[in-house]
């Protein structure tokens, strides 16, 4: 059995120049497959809301929903490094709520760390979480929980001023105590600069190849979620059509009476009808 990674292991990967792989997981079965494929970090993202729960944004996701799914991921992957994504409203009101909710991810779901979105405005909260013993990953650039304030789901940090601001946010979050930083949907050169400017690993999603690691939503990677596919997503498989084909075959066989056949049925007493006096 593999040894569970620690925060120190993840920090050392940047020092050693080893790329970090992170993928989202929301249930035990997928978590187990991702762990078997040796993914470094499993993120129970609040993308859960859109990918699995059918909401049209991540905003409605609740702490109870996150805990329910994070606990399943932990059960499916007992030795993985699992990160719980703090949903909108679970940390925005201040350090006390953040510690109570962040603590739930560790105590009730067995997570190793939490992730939260935001720049300089969340630095105080990050420091309070770290002091309370809760390891934190930051998330800047396109932050889906507040996408409407950013003008929608679009590339951030394209002009000099917003790029400078983002570098300041990255430095501020590092100082506040995050041990890694997700950079979402920013120009690749800015991803490279931020990765050079801070000592902690950057994990990019639409932030170019120079980040210290990469994260994708697993359903996007597998081609299972086509409601909204950002242009930075690479689908390594197209499972949605394969699933449809399999289900079409099943429904047609059930309707025609060819499933289940003998090979998928059980046999009992050979003369059961007679024994029961039924003919
Ligand atoms: O919720 C999520 O899945 C995320 C990743 C896309 C970084 O925040």
Describe this structure in words.
The chain contains eleven helices and eight strands. The chain is elongated, with a radius of gyration of 23 Å. It has two domains: 7-238, TIM Barrel; 241-275, no CATH class. Strand 5, helix 7 and strand 6 (180-184) form a beta-alpha-beta unit. The mean pLDDT is 96. The termini are far apart. An eight-stranded parallel β-barrel has the order 1-2-3-4-5-6-7-8, surrounded by seven helices. It is an alpha/beta fold and 279 residues long. The site of 3-methyl-2-oxobutanoic acid (KIV) has 10 residues, from loops.
What is the structure about, briefly put?
The protein is an alpha/beta fold.
List the helices and strands and how they pair.
Elements: H1 7-15, E1 20-24, H2 28-36, E2 41-44, H3 48-51, H4 63-76, E3 81-85, H5 95-107, E4 113-115, H6 123-131, E5 136-141, H7 160-176, E6 180-184, H8 188-197, E7 202-205, E8 213-216, H9 218-221, H10 239-256, H11 272-275
Helix pairs in contact: 2-4, 5-6, 6-7, 7-8
The structure holds 3-methyl-2-oxobutanoic acid.
């Amino acid at each position: 059995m593999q040894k569970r990674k620690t925060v120190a292991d993840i920090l050392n990967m940047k020092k050693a120049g080893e790329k970090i792989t992170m993928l989202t997981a929301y249930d035990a079965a997928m978590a187990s497959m991702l762990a078997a494929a040796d993914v470094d970090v499993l993120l129970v993202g609040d993308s859960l809301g859109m990918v699995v729960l059918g909401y049209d944004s991540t905003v409605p996701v609740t702490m109870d929903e996150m805990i329910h799914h994070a606990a399943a991921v932990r059960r499916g992957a007992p030795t993985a490094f699992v990160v719980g994504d703090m949903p909108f409203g679970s940390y925005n009101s201040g350090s006390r709520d953040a510690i109570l909710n962040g603590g739930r991810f560790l105590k009730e779901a067995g997570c190793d760390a939490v992730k939260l979105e935001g720049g300089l405005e969340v630095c105080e909260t990050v420091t309070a979480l770290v002091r309370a013993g809760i390891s934190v990953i930051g998330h800047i650039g396109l932050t889906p929980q507040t996408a409407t304030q950013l003008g929608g789901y679009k590339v951030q940090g394209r002009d000099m001023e917003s790029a400078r601001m983002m570098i300041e946010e990255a430095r501020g979050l590092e100082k506040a105590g995050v041990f890694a930083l997700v950079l979402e949907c920013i120009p690749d050169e800015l991803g490279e600069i931020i990765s050079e400017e801070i000592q902690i690993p950057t994990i990019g999603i639409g932030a170019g190849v120079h980040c210290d690691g990469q994260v994708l939503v697993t359903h996007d990677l597998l081609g299972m979620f086509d409601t909204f596919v950002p242009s930075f997503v690479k689908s390594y498989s197209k499972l949605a059509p394969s699933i449809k084909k399999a289900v079409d075959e099943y429904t047609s066989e059930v309707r025609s009476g060819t499933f289940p056949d003998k090979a998928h049925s059980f046999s009992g007493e050979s003369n059961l009808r007679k024994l029961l006096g039924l003919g």
